[in-house]
Amino acid sequence: MSRTRRRLTTGSLVAGLLIPLLSGVSAAPASAAQLNAALVRTVDLSALDPPLPDPSGIAYVPSRDRLLIVDGEVDEMPVFAGSNLFEITRSGTLTDRGLTNPPTKEPVGISHDPGSGHAFIADDDQQRIHDFDPGPDGRFATADDVRTWFSTGAFGSTDPEDVAFHPQTGEIFVLEGTDNDIHRVGPGPNGVFDGVAPSGDDVSTEFDVLGLGIRDPEGIAVHPVRHTLLVADFTTRRVYELNREVMPVNSIDISASGQTKAAGIAVAPATDDPQRLNLYIVDRGVDNDTDPDENDGKMYEMSVDLPPVPNLAPVPQAGRDVASHLTDPLTLRGAVRDDGGPAPVAVAWSQTGGPGTAVFADAAAAVTEVSFSAPGTYVLRLTASDSALSGSDDVTVTVLPDGAPIPLNVPVAKAFDDVEQPPTGYVDWLGKSLNIPNAGGTAQTIGLRFAGLDVPPGSTITSASVQFTSARSGSAATTARVWAVASDDTPTFATTPGSVAARPRTQASVTWSPPAWTGAGQAGEAQRTSELKTLVQEVVDRPGWARGNAIAFVMTGTGERAAQSHDGGTAPVLHLSYVAGGAPPVQPVAFRAAAHFAGNTTSASVGVPSAVQSGDGMLLFATVNTVSATVTGPAGVIGWTLVADFTTGSARTLVWKKVAVAGDAGTPVSLELSPITKIGLQLVAYDGTSAADPVAAVATRSDTTATTSHTGPAVEVGTAGGWLVSYWADKSSVTTAWTPPPGMAVRDQLAGAGSGRVTSLLADSGGTVPIGTAAGPTATTDEASRAAMVRVLLAREP
After folding, report:
1. Helix H or strand E encompassing 537
2. Residue 630 in contact with residue 582, Cβ under 8 Å?
3. Residues in Cβ contact with 107 at an 8 Å cutoff, skipping those fewer than 6 apart
4. Digit-coded pLDDT (tens) for 410-451
5. Where is this region: Disordered (predicted)?
6. CA 326, CA 378: separation in Å to the nearest integer?
7. Other C-beta atoms within 10 Å of 724: how many?
8. CA 742 from chain center: how many Å?
9. CA-based max dimension of the chain
């Protein structure tokens, strides 16, 4: 089922704030206070003549003591009377009206600059902010207006729901609905809002507000006395007060209004006491896409007691996790947000974890170089203090041996970066699932974009794949063909027809036929695309490729798998590794071969597969059905090292490792048993493992009771490029079959005979595993049993 589209609209809330006209800044530390707003009055905007069925933005004009309200949907409805901008008194009397089209028929947000007298209007269809000079008549949206605009899409705001002018700083704050962001825009040296480079010299800073609990922001305003931002969120039924650095000050409950879809907010004198300031909030009510004849717009005046703005703890940002070579210089690019008091912020870097020592060039600078004494995973902390309060943030640095591929894990970062384009051509970006490649019986084109790839020109791509997380089960035969977009720096997708399908594609393409997805929340091999490194390489080899550019992929095909989208909780992630230009690529780990033996014997033997080559890493797994048996060996092939030996009930499991040498291939490996014992013996070999030691880590687990679900142990993956091998074995008289975990590559299965027989399953990750905690996979048996489980992390050749 394809994702549900909704019209990109903005709304304005009207609520009142009960505060003194002068408000100080206290020194007392505080988190965002939880406040309740009281309803003063409700104005039925739908009852005005002409009516406002979908009020989507509101602003206060002090010089006229009037409220300006825009309606971004009224032109699509039967009640439209040639106006989409309305001027009303604070008590709700209509005093003037106008039409913003041209240049915009989709005015979804509005703000007013009391200094210049201009109005700023947000348009989420055009991705623009329009600047309206009212002209000689002093009225907005009339024929003598002087109208200019700048693009919000140029700085990443593809759904500008509202806009707020900050009189104290001369900045504009653009509220981004789809990605829950606020963009702070300064006019640049020329003092004019003309867009970011190359069209102008504006400066934009993006702030994420989803982490503040804001779920669906549609209205924003600046408090004229406190100089704070007020953000209206109809989903949480709250107005969030933030400072200029988008740090939380207060959270205001507006549920007393009974709002349905609060869409815009303004601050103006109270109707019952002009010495106080109240909130004014507009409510769109039912969307006209749901009911084309609806007419239910409202405005609420609300009051709330706001305490003095407190000192807020600095918010340091240590940067995103990064990987680097041991001898390569690494620059930490920390940053700090603060409210400016009570003292200048002091920062300090420190090390909280790692196998060696991190040495900072200047631990008191947010941006500084760091070096490390040994490879491994380090945790570094950036702490910031304003002398009264402090905050900290951590970054994980993976230090690799020189020459090892550098891993990158880049998620889809924006709602418009994972999209579906159906045959109509209009791009669909909303919803919690991404239907790959088709939606039911509807053929479509999938677009995926990953921004900010830290891959230098001239690099060799050693691996690349996109990891999805399943949104639901699906087993229909599915095949997708995947291309990369042939562009130096792919821009984000848009709703315009052909935004995905019309983009140029790489000559190289790959096919991906995912197996069945058996439920929601799965993110394993089954949800990972085929190897995409040839596609990525073609883009990185383009003359215009630069470090930090974006790459995109296009998919078409047959069938359907439903993955979670950016809006669905777990965004698709591009897993990529590369070797910088001039450095030879390192051979990745790859499955070579497997063999097994099962029987009731005093001498168990399995031959080393003929495909095994010198330098391969080999693992030998053995499970015997009694703990009293004596196990001697391995013999025939020398050089084995025991890495695990444990019991599960009355069964015993042993694991050995070895680096293959010339002559091992084709040679039997044997274990001697006394007395006669039932055994399952499996040998598996891998290419590309470390010649010094093919095993980086081993973890074991035993079921304590009989069950059909057998979850292996978790493993900490500390370096890039490793593979995980998983082994399950049971002693049972009833087990006949193992079902592997979804997404894992099965390498060998073994089943003995008779009562007390050994059955086992050998599988691996099918590719490199990300750094971090690898949760234990669950295999199932057709009958309940107690299983022994082993997971081996293979080390890649450095």
Report:
1. helix 533-540
2. no
3. 56, 57, 70, 71, 72, 84, 85, 100, 121, 122, 123, 130
4. 999 988 899 999 887 678 776 789 999 999 889 999 999 999
5. 495-526
6. 12
7. 24
8. 23
9. 106
For residue 664, give Cα distances in angstroms to 504, 693, 732. 50, 17, 33
DSSP assignment letter at 540: H
Amino acid at 48: L
Contact of 224 with 280, CB cutoff 8 Å: no
pLDDT greater than 60 at residue 25: no
Q: Is the pLDDT of residue 690 over 60?
A: yes
Helical (H) or strand (E) element with 411: strand 406-411
d(CA 72, CA 90): 21
Asked if the bond preceding 504 is cis, omega within 30° of 0, the reply is no
Q: Do the beta carbons of residue 794 and residue 655 sit within 8 Å?
A: no
Of the chain, the percentage scoring pLDDT greater than 70 comes to 95
Go through the domains of the chain in sequence order and give each one's CATH number: 13-311 (2.120.10), 315-402 (2.60.40.10), 409-579 (2.60.120), 590-794 (no CATH)
Q: CA-CA distance, 765 to 746, in Å (whole number)?
A: 9
Give the Cα separation of 513 and 18 in Å (integer). Answer: 61
Specify the residue for token string 């390569």: 328
**Geometric angle at alpha carbon 415, from 295 and 488, rounded to 5°:** 135
Cα separation, 559 vs 515, whole angstroms: 11
Please write the tens of the pLDDT for every residue from 371-424: 999 889 999 999 999 999 999 999 999 999 888 999 999 999 988 899 999 887
Q: Please report, as a single letter, which amino acid is at residue 635.
A: A
The DSSP bridge partners found for residue 751 are 759
Neighbours of 438 (CB within 10 A): 24
